[in-house]
Amino acid sequence: MKDEITTVAALKEQVHQLCLRKGWGVNGVQNPQHVAMAMTVEMSELLEHFQWLNLDDVERLMQGGDPERKAMIAEEFADVMMYGLQLTRTLNIDIASEIERKIEIVDHRPPRRDNPKR
Ligand SMILES: [Mg+2]
């Protein structure tokens, strides 16, 4: 599976099928409030892999010099995304459209005085 050829819709369906196989939720649909809370737990697990890194550590990670950490980060980010895909499926959110809409909003937002790059 590659990012370039996999649609968001296909990923939503794969996550839904996993929920059905596992018997999670009602007919594979979990309470979106619970899913949103679980996302924050997974986000914390993701952040643990960045905790206490110094700039050299981060640079090494970005250059591919810490494949074990990268694998753990990838796994936790997958957890975050899987909950996100569940959430958007349950609430019938077209996330591709929402991301494009958000990019448009941010693109036209005036720069902040304290950080002109934002
Ligand atoms: Mg996790």
Radius of gyration computed on alpha carbons: 17 Å
Kindly report the name of the CATH homologous superfamily of the domain at 30-106.
MazG-like
Structural class: mainly alpha
Query: How many beta-strand elements?
Result: 0
Structure, described:
By secondary structure, the protein is mainly alpha-helical. The protein has a domain at 30-106: Orthogonal Bundle (Helix Hairpins), CATH 1.10.287.1080. Helix content is 65%, strand content 0%. 7% of the residues are buried. The model has no long low-confidence stretch (mean pLDDT 95). The structure holds magnesium ion. Magnesium ion binds at residues 42, 45, 76, 79. The site of magnesium ion has 4 residues, from α2 and α4.
Could you give the topology of this structure?
Layout: H1 8-22, H2 32-48, H3 55-62, H4 67-90, H5 95-107
The structure holds magnesium ion.
Residues 42, 45, 76, 79 line the site of magnesium ion.
Defining traits:
mainly alpha; single chain; 118 residues
Short description:
This protein has helices at 8-22, 32-48, 55-62, 67-90, 95-107. The chain has 118 residues and is an all-alpha fold. It has a domain at 30-106: MazG-like (Helix Hairpins).
